[in-house]
Amino acid sequence: MANQSHQFWIEAPYTGRLREVPVPEPGPDQVLIRSEFSGISAGTETLVYRGEIPPAVAALMAAPQQLGELPYPVSHGYLNVGTVEEGPEELLGRRVFTLSGHRSHLVVPTADCHLLDEQMPSSRALLGGIAEVGLNATWESEVSLGDRVAVIGAGLVGLVTGLLLQKLSPARLELVELDPVRRRRAADLGLKAVTPEEASGDNDAVLHTSATAGGLNRALELTGDDGVVVEMSWYGTAEPQIALGADFHARRLRLASTQVGEVAAPKRLRRSRRQRLATALELLDERFDALITGSSPLVELPRVMDDFARRADWTNNEILHIVTYDH
C-alpha cells in the first residue's frame, strides 16, 4: 500500500489545491478506504468553492466526512466509492459507498459504510448520495400513485429525482427544462421533458431543483390549489425574489424546504438517515448509468472544479462528472 495520500482542499474562494499527506490510520470502529471513484455534485460543491456559504449555516451544511471547516480551508464532497483496506474482516476487500469527498484514502466510521452489491457498478453507486436527496424530497412531497407531478430543472438532482418518481407511476410526470440538450437527455431516459411554457398546471406537487428565482416562481404557477412546492435548491448567499404576493396565499399553496441533514418530516419517526441512504442505493438501476457523463483523474481536479465554478462551456452538459484515482 502507498505511504502517501492525496486530498483535494479548497483553501480560499476559487482556490483548490491537492495536498500530499501520509495515509491516515483508522482508529477504533473506523475503516481505511482506498478510493476508486468520487463524484462532483456541482451545485453544492461550486458554492463551497466560490465561498458562497452563509456563515450562519456553515456548521449545518458541513459534509458528513469533510476535513476542515466551512468556509475554508476544507476538503468537501460527499460521493465516494472505494475498497476497504483496514477494518472489520467482513468489510476487508469489499466495495463501500460513503458520504466522503475527493481524497485517495479515507478514514470513516465503520457505521457510515454502505456495502455495495457485487452487481452494482461503482460509478452508478456514486449516485447514491444524490438519490438520497431525491428520495428525501419525494417523501417530503408525499407524492403517491396517480398524482400529477412536475420536476423543474434537468440537472443532476432533477434527473435523478425524475427517475425515482417514475417508480411511483404518477398520472403525469413532467420534467421542466429550458435547455434543449438537457431536455433531449431527459427524453432519452424515458422522461417527458417540456419547456416552462409547455408545462402542465394543476400539479399536486412540484419539486424544484434549478436554483433560480425564475424556476421557483414557475413552480408556484404550476402547482394546483392546496398543492406543495418542494424546494430542493440551495442558493448559498443568493437572495432570490419570489412572487408570494400573487396567488400564493389565495390558493393555499405550500412551500416546503427539504435538506438531507434530516429525514423528511413525514418519515422522520420511521426511518433513520442510514436507512434512507441504504434505500436510495437500492433504488439505483441501469437507467442511472446514463447520468455518468465524464471523468478526470484527481490530479486534474483543481482545474476541473474551477471550470465548473466558472461555468466553462464544456461543463454545461455534464451531469455527473467522476474523479478517478491512480493508486
UniProtKB/TrEMBL annotation:
InterPro entries: GroES-like_sf, NAD(P)-bd_dom_sf. The keyword Oxidoreductase applies. Its cofactor is Zn(2+). Keywords: Metal-binding, Oxidoreductase, Zinc. It comes from the Bacteria. SUPFAM superfamilies: GroES-like (SSF50129), NAD(P)-binding Rossmann-fold domains (SSF51735). One of its GO terms (molecular function) is oxidoreductase activity. The keyword Transmembrane does not apply. Belongs to the zinc-containing alcohol dehydrogenase family. This is Dehydrogenase.
